[in-house]
Amino acid sequence: MPRREICVTSPEVAMHGEINIHARVAVVTKAKLDDIRIGGECLCGPAPQPKPEYDVLVLIDGSDSYNNKVSINGEIDAGDAFEATQEIIDSDLIPGLQQKLGDRATFRLLQFSGIKQLEGAYKPGSGGAAGTSGLLHYKEEVAKTSLDRATRQSYSEGLDGNGQLFLVLQDLNLEYQKTSRNQILVIVSDEEWDLKKLQTPSGRVADRDEIATETASKFATYPVIVRPNELADLDDDFIANTLASRQSNYKKVFTKSFDKQLKKAFKEIIADLE
């Protein structure tokens, strides 16, 4: 008899139930360190390098030839160069340096001039004392201090002598030695300098190239030279290649655009510092 099958379609039947189990389980894992190895190929990244530290020294020319009438805010003959220089140092140079370097730097300010008749009798390293009571070739206006505390209480009057730049530079060469700190020298002056009878420590007549070369070996030197005449740059080659520690450090300022160009020179100097 043949087999027959009957197919029946039925809906799915599902059963539902809930079983609630409350349990507390604690898992403790114990591990034993058998070996530890450090390979030379590990890359941890370079250690951060400390930021460089600076000693900033500024020289202002206090001679009579520097203190010309200069343009301020577009007004011709609006001020005297010596006082205006101090004002811009206070308004632009010191705050700019403070913002860039903070407490990583020191600051010092000297005014230089000179007494022509006493040049030959000056003993190198005498701190500017001319040998006659009360007379100075240069003077310290702001003693070396932490840059973040550098302030000016009042402006000084110019010494109003001749331009004995190399007298003060020779003294600085004796005072400063090369160190791990970056020594910055900013010279704000005209280009009328006197050097005839200045003696070296060994007693011979001083040579400006020798003095300037030694200065540039110890300092990053920035000559900021103020002139009334744009057509006659005296000692241009000497300033750029000997007095300045590199040519780009040489900054030119003219009296007819004095405040703008001096502020620009200071801004460029600050931008050079790390």
Number of helical regions: 5
Shape: globular
Class, according to the CATH hierarchy?
Alpha Beta
CATH superfamily: von Willebrand factor, type A domain
CATH topology heading: Rossmann fold
- Poorly predicted tracts of residues: none
Order of helices and strands: EEEHEEHEHEHEH
Organism: Oikopleura dioica
Protein name: Oidioi.mRNA.OKI2018_I69.PAR.g8652.t1.cds
The gist of it:
24% of the residues lie in helices and 20% in strands.
Keywords summarizing the entry:
single chain, 274 residues, Rossmann fold, two-stranded antiparallel ribbon, 5 helices, 8 strands
Molecular structure report:
The protein has one domain: 3-Layer(aba) Sandwich (Rossmann fold). The strands form 2 sheets. Strands 5-4-1-6-7-8 form a 6-stranded mixed sheet, sandwiched between helices. Helix 1 (81-101) packs parallel to helix 5 and helix 2 (165-175) crosses helix 3 (208-218). The termini are far apart. It has helices spanning 81-101, 165-175, 208-218, 236-243, 258-272; strands at 54-61, 69-72, 75-80, 105-112, 138-146, 182-189, 220-227, 251-254. The mean pLDDT is 88. With 274 residues, the chain is α/β, with parallel strands linked by helices. It is built from 5 helices and 8 strands, in the order βββαββαβαβαβα. This is Oidioi.mRNA.OKI2018_I69.PAR.g8652.t1.cds.
